[in-house]
Amino acid sequence: MLPGSIQITGEALSGAEIKDICDSLKENSVRLLSVRGCQLSDRDFGRVCRGVAESHSLAQLNLNLGVVSTIGRTKHLADALKANRSIQTLFLHGSPLLDAGLVTLNGALSTHPSLVSLDLGDCMLGDEAVRLICGMLPPDGAKSGLKELTLSANPAISSQGWARLAIAVAHSSQLRVLNLDYNPLGDHIAGMLAVSVASSRTLEVLDLEGTGLTNQSAQIFLDMVENYPTSLRVLVLAENDISPELQQQISDLLSEGEEEEDKDGEARGSSVNPREKPAWVPHSIQTFTKLSLTLPDSSSSQMVLMTSGLGESFLAETEM
């Protein structure tokens, strides 16, 4: 039987439910575990972490919305990640980690052999956290690194922190998706990011929604995509003070670039793919089949979602 998924949102988890989750993890029958916004005791959180450590099938772990609420829980999670070798995607969006929490997690995150997608949005991070995150964006292929990074809504990061990140992005050999939405970036930092995008050989998606940009930033991005080759395919500029005309011009140019690459590939023959697609696929564009099942041996009526496996690619979360 292919590994499935357990997804529970905003529930107070009983001891019996925690036991069922842990048993499933240890039996390697779970590929996606999501307990976003759930309430559980520190003891039960530790039990789940021990199950994560022992699992060889778990590819995606969602602890969004405050599940990792203390430094003690952060330490439990770090220990689990050090032992686990299978997780490819980790969601911690809305966790009050602060820089101290990321310092605790850094050793496990930066050395994890499979982790390619990390969501640290709204985690109250600052410049020290950004410095550590840059270490997860290696400049060459000799070391594995992140392919998707979310740092949405971390307003404590300074201009210096964003500048450091921009340099790391410019030289990263693997990063393909970068979500920085709802940070107070402004035109100056956006200019730095434009230089990063122009330099990057891999970045395909950049989300700058609601980041305080104006037509000044948009014009820089327009000049970049109009005059220089870029890997960028999607640039999100919604919820900024940018004219719809400029946004449309940028979108049209990015679309034209992709169409031209496809035509070049067809001209060279159907056996040649103009842009090699990696086995990894951004979590936001994957699809999967869902079946509603009840946790075994549980007296609770709480329903979870079991999801069929997707071969070598990891499963996608249905909701943030």
Automatic annotation (TrEMBL):
Cross-referenced SUPFAM superfamilies: RNI-like
Domain of life, source organism: Eukaryota
Record field: compositional bias (Acidic residues): 255-264
Region entry Disordered, spans: 254-279
Swiss-Prot/TrEMBL keywords: Repeat
The protein's name: Leucine-rich repeat-containing protein 73
